[in-house]
Amino acid sequence: MKWYSYLICCVLIIAGALCGLQLYKEVKAESYVNGSIDISNKFSQESFRYKSTSAVFYHDLYDDTDAYSFQTDLPKTENFDGEKNTYKVMLNDYVLFNAEVNAGSVYADVCIDFYDTQGQIVNSANMSVSVKFLSNKTQLTLATIGNENAQFLEQYFGDNGLRLQIIEIKEEI
To answer: Which of 17, 109, 133, 135 could bond 80 through an S-S bridge, CB–CB 3.0 to 4.6 Å?
Structure first.
């Protein structure tokens, strides 16, 4: 045998011993805790989700008011109970803090400001969001007052899409 084969054998033996030592340390590892950790777990479970690429607001010809609305009927939602559970309402990834959650419905008022290129407010559209959880369907309604507000909101939802989520917040100790 040549001298470098002895050198390779020695390197392999040393590498094997180091790997075995590291494996022994990982298998024999023990953990300990100093003090106490109080963690209350909170997790969420999605209860309702509506996603669309646009929303078209219609004006009822027989309505004397200047109200425009977008309404759609969706499949029924199971296990929604606004009296017993806590929910978070999100519209296009923004939390609606003023959402009113009832036993079988959710209502919220949203104000969306639209700016021009100089940073001046061009329009400030108020929109009401209503989700009713009925026995046979779920009814989503978005409503605003005025044709100009409806046009700005249609453009906004056309550009950004419409994503409405109602998420149940669950707490476990």
So the answer is: 133
Please tell me the distance from the alpha carbon of residue 88 to that of residue 90, in angstroms, as a whole number.
Answer: 7
Please report the DSSP string for 109-147 in residue order.
EEEEEEE-TTS-EEEEEEEEEEEEE-SS-EEEEEEEESH
List, for residues 79-96, the tens digit of each pLDDT value. 888 888 888 999 988 999
Nearest Cα to 105, choosing from 85, 80, 68, 74? 80
Q: Give the integer Cα–Cα distance in Å for 59 and 40.
A: 48
Q: Write out pLDDT tens, residues 43-65.
A: 556 578 888 888 888 888 787 88
Contact 126, 145 (CB under 8 A): yes
Please list the residues that pair with 109 across neighbouring strands. 128
Residue 156 three-state SS: helix
Beta carbons within 10 angstroms of residue 158's beta carbon: 13
Residue 147 dihedral angles phi and psi, to the nearest 5°: -65, -40
